[in-house]
Amino acid sequence: MLKKQTIIGGLTALALATQMAVAAVSPKEAERLKKDLTPIGAEKAGNKAGTIPAWTGGLQKSDIPKSYTQRGQHYPNPFPGEKPQFVITSSNLSKYQANLTPGQIALFKAYPKTFKIPVYKTRRSGSLPQFVYDNTIKHATTAKLNNGGNGFTGAYAGFPFPLPKDGLEALWNHIVRYRGEYGVRKAAGVPVHRNGNYTPVITQQEAFFKYYDPNGSESTLDNIIIYYLSFTTSPARLAGGAVLVHETLDQVKQPRQAWGYNAGQRRVRRAPNLAYDTPISSADGLIVADDTDMYNGAPDRYNWKLVGKKEIYIPYNNYELISPKLKNEDILKVGHVNPDHTRYELHRVWIVEGNLKPGERHIYSKRVLYLDEDSWGAAVVDQYDGRGELWRVSMAYLLNNYDLPTTWTGLDVFHDLQARRYYVQGLANEESTYVDFSKAIPDDKYFKPAALRRRGRR
Description:
Blueprint: H1 12-15, H2 27-30, E1 86-88, H3 93-96, H4 102-110, E2 117-119, H5 130-139, E3 144-146, E4 151-153, H6 167-175, E5 182-192, E6 201-208, E7 224-234, E8 242-248, E9 257-262, E10 267-270, E11 302-315, H7 328-331, E12 344-356, E13 366-372, E14 378-384, E15 390-401, E16 406-416, E17 421-427, H8 449-456
Antiparallel strand pairs: 1-2, 3-4, 5-6, 5-17, 6-7, 7-8, 8-9, 9-10, 11-12, 12-13, 13-14, 14-15, 15-16, 16-17
């Protein structure tokens, strides 16, 4: 096991880089993406202890279970029958806490009798389409931060900074990571109260990741990287409401554009404050706007530091957690989701720390992101209040969407340690479905406010 403060494999120098990188990497540096690093910048080799294997390409088409017959159905587990190697509990926490985040440790202390982490064999299952690898390598020498780090140029349809020199570059890899081109799903958002009571809010969600539009290019982005559309179908008091978002690349140059449709008033209105620490009402105030997807939006209110890399037990390959065999009541328990259905593995993560800039306002004074090296997706985020005390802990229960392929979340869970409540986002069980990537990409007119009004009247 690593000691608590161990930084892995000669990468400390990255943490000492300046906050703002103004130049792309050299061709010599980029050559590593074809040698000792994966095409997106992870270490190919396993660790010395043998507890993290070498990356050999991740899940391939041949690994897809035969029971997976069409897009949109729940993903069958490609590792059926595997059992935990061991289970971390409050009683043996000291043995493993060097490879946990402060937030994970806090969850053991908050729920000592029920919270646990079942640790399975590490599977470096992360894989991506070849065009993402090709574009990442191609643009590694051209991508640059601009406008104070609030955007970047010189990259498209790939990770802009596979060899990050600072925290902002690593953060942008998370923000624009590949999650398909266009997906549709029906999912539940569930605030769970201290006593375990909950009322699911069911929405149909559609996302067009314009940054990965196969018919587009950097010149056609028009500063928009994602179109997002959501319609609420239940409960009855919220049914018919809708939200439309145009997610901009540089949100300081052009803030996120958002509109809401009120079914009762039958009107579409601008939602100019749907950013930063605006509370999300359907989440009962348990998350704010930039919590979604573990972190999203403009990075300008924080100073971002690349701390380095570390081996952490993170949620990974959580196919059983999204199994259609489970009911909501099987998953949603007092204090946290049912750990019997979760899976954790030991993976190397990039640690990115954001500290609130002097004079800026946000409910979080600090947030620490733990980014999976094989996908750049945030697996765990620890968030601190204005007093500098740990407040909220977010975890993305990752899995490989092997029909694309990509590593994305099965569901996201946001824990409020002070309120002893939590919020589950993206629950795809019972009346919900999993994300369907088979739909044809609509044109941009589909994501205009006028279209929102027409659809809301149906």
